[in-house]
Amino acid sequence: MYSFELKKADSVAKAAALLAESGGKPLAGGQSLVAAMKMRLAQPGTLVDLSGIAELRGIRREGDNVVIGAMTRHAEVAASKDVQGAIPALAALAEGIGDRQVRNMGTLGGALANNDPAACYPAAVLGLGATVHTNKRKIAADDFFKGMYETALADGELITAVSFPVPKKAAYMKFVQPASRFALVGVFVAQTTGGVRVAVTGAAASVFRAKPLEDALAKSFTADAAKAVRMSAAGLNNDLHGSPEYRAHLISVMAARAVTAAG
To answer: Most CB atoms within 10 A, among 86, 164, 189, 249?
Structure first.
């Protein structure tokens, strides 16, 4: 690990000022960034610790939305009665992230800002049509994820919270890569007031919406309808864990399981 300076912030405004002043990186749960630093894949000269910012934590119900602070841990989302009652699929997704250490240290905002191609939270945000709140603006889920480890966030911009619309029904299913516990393919299916949304993680360079599945499930929200969809393998990942064709097949399989789980 390269040397770095750690600065602590006790407010969003202070954190933003420290980032602007130092050109450093924000530190949320550190489950991805610290690992990259240990392997010398990342070399931030300054880290701004967000863990002391109370305004970034918490879960609350606001009308037809569940609002979750950016520094809320995965384990807190999984255990929240508000989340379990309003969006049980989101609580179940959080419960299945990584291992116990990751769930007790990793944060919603950190996971979204990192945008790992196989992370689970991006599928929930995109699948539910959530809104990402930052210290500067609000960003719709469809506009937030740009590519591998790339988002719409500008330098120094901080996620403060995410608003999740409560769906009519939803579920998330993932085919786990056993070594990493990340999703080889994960599919979040939701029936929302605006229609059916299907988000896929793990299969490509970034999370994406599966339009063929959305169209099929809009006509018939059944497992058979999902199974009948033949997803294209174009642009999907090809590695030692699976071919593009294998991942394309898994998308329909996981979507069908998610529809069944959603009821």
So the answer is: 189
